Amino acid sequence: MIYFISLDDGTYAMKKVIIQTEEQLEMVKQEIRVSSLFSHPNLLPLLDHAIIPVKLCAGLKHMHSFDPPYAHNDVKPGNVLITHKKGQPPLAILMDFGSARPARKEIRSRSEALQLQEWASEHCSAPFRAPELWDCPSNADIDERTDIWSLGCTLYAIM
């Protein structure tokens, strides 16, 4: 599937490929290798999007390094803005902090577990929600690792 994206510095094509076998993965890798060899105005360039996961991790690390650490709680593709300026690598920006809260929660009762599950159902997008927010144990320590789960789901979804 090909998407066309218009930015201030030009129009870009983004190709989404569904890979189900090792053979398909190798074909995509080969296409990337070949595409990266060329630089010509009549050939579509390959943008360096490998930096996107690194930038998202850096943003989350910053939030998780606060005292107390903060969790975004709603990491998903729709909350990632990707910008690209000519001559620079793409920049991935995590946005929408409406669900951000201090990350560490001590759950010590079934009532607290149910309250957290209810809060998560309202504030954390279901396809990207960490398992411990779906079925919270009655005696658990919940922390910023819920964002790491959501980040993994997000990266899987955008690849």
UniProtKB/TrEMBL annotation:
Start and end of every Protein kinase domain? 1-159
Tell me the GO molecular function terms.
Answer: ATP binding; protein serine/threonine kinase activity
Q: Name one Pfam family in it.
A: Pkinase
Could you state one GO cellular component term attached to this entry?
Answer: cytoplasm
Q: Which reaction does it catalyse?
A: L-seryl-[protein] + ATP = O-phospho-L-seryl-[protein] + ADP + H(+); L-threonyl-[protein] + ATP = O-phospho-L-threonyl-[protein] + ADP + H(+)
Q: Which UniProt keywords apply?
A: ATP-binding, Kinase, Nucleotide-binding, Serine/threonine-protein kinase, Transferase
Fetch the PROSITE patterns from UniProt: PROTEIN_KINASE_DOM, PROTEIN_KINASE_ST
InterPro entries for this protein: Kinase-like_dom_sf, Prot_kinase_dom, Ser/Thr-specific_kinases, Ser/Thr_kinase_AS
Presence of keyword Transcription regulation: no
- Is ATP-binding there in the keyword field? yes
Transmembrane segment boundaries = none
EC numbers for this chain: 2.7.11.1
Please report the name of this protein according to its UniProt entry: non-specific serine/threonine protein kinase
Which source organism does the UniProt entry give? Ensete ventricosum (Abyssinian banana)
